[in-house]
Amino acid sequence: MTYKRKAKEMKGLVENKLKELGFKGKVKEINGEVSFGWQVYNVKVGKQESVFVVYGGEDLGALKIGETLDRLFTEQGMDRKKVIDKPQQRAMIGLGLLIKKYEVKEMDLGELRKYYGGDFLARSLKKKGVNKVYMIDVS
Fold it and tell me: What is the pTM of this model?
């Protein structure tokens, strides 16, 4: 399955979740990347633009990796940055842990920066003109 087709299939699911969150209007554009089993979508709704981290209930790859690494870091006193060298991967794992531990659904970039891996993500989102991040479960 090509990435564009996958994004297109997600569009309807994301649109329904946005309505639940109180967004009005149709999703104009949806694109993103898949990392550690998590899909990060940049969604344009009307004149608003936000980023939605979309995760399915079945694919918990990021959570399992995140939890294992978190335990390792804690037990061994390891430096996370030496173990995971790509900032995007650190951000994904950080978000995986964040969603599971705190059941966060929405946050602004300032809040996101406080979490492990969130600083990189917040910087790149700010460049795209995004102010808020929403976590949506489409499983």
Answer: 0.46
